[in-house]
């Protein structure tokens, strides 16, 4: 799954950026399928940022080998993106390290100016920004007068995720009041009621989105052509069919008025074409106003903006 992120991220053409791709160590879960898995992965990954740096790898080592990537954490990073679409506890743990520069256990890869987020929080923020640029304006919660009549169907963003358990996990995280859980994805019930259209799932775990005998979607020349690389799901249903069925359910609920579809898993990187294909079938006029948001690209974009803005 880590390797599937390289091409889409590098296609963003931030050519002056050096990326390090870190896969969780063998002690971390192979796939994060619930909050318990997220806790386990935090326990496994945090020592990579609290231990002294390893010696530089010998020249013959493969820098893309996940078993050797720990040795690449040698220098301060401007930003760190946790590529998990969840309220992942590794983010606040890393932020705590970054804001405690005198901590003797802090790895030199983290400094007080290291920006840290995950693809969940970044996606929620970008989705709200995209909604504000659509043709149907988001009603203001603070400026509306008591007698104002808001649009009957304000545009919303919806999330496509993996297993059914993520409906509750992601919705709960978004509905928290801002600051209540200390995370950027929390909108609070009032704002979430205006902009959040819910979660639909494909009925698979994250690790199942990239079966070993099929290429990842980002390796498919054109996901719109529907040829190859679709992978088999349960009952003979392909991964592409499951993703498109979840997209259709998200769009069919007329009360949601979804105008931004968020790919809610790092394993879905490269599947935008499948989602757009379904949107073109389901939405009158071809669905041109419906945006598709890849969480990994959103996370990289948010961090790039923070770093380059010098905030």
Structure overview:
The chain has 311 residues and is of the alpha/beta class. The chain has nine helices and six strands; from the N terminus they run ααβαβαβααβαβαβα. It has helices at residues 2-10, 35-45, 90-98, 119-132, 165-175, 189-195, 239-252, 272-282, 295-309, and strands spanning 79-82, 115-118, 156-161, 196-201, 258-263, 291-294. Helix content is 32%, strand content 10%.
Task: Give a brief description.
32% of the residues lie in helices and 10% in strands.
Structural class: alpha/beta
Count of DSSP helices? 9
What is the strand arrangement across the widest sheet? 4-3-5-6
> Shape, please?
globular
- Runs in which pLDDT lies below 50 for 5 or more consecutive residues are 66-71, 141-147, 218-229
The share of residues in helices is 25-40%
Number of distinct beta strands: 6
Gyration radius over CA? 20 Å
Alpha-carbon distance between the two ends: 31 Å
Mean pLDDT: 79
Strand content: 5-15%
Largest sheet: 4 strands, parallel
What's the SSE pattern? HHEHEHEHHEHEHEH
Characteristics:
311 residues, alpha/beta, four-stranded parallel beta sheet, two-stranded parallel sheet, 9 helices, 6 strands, globular
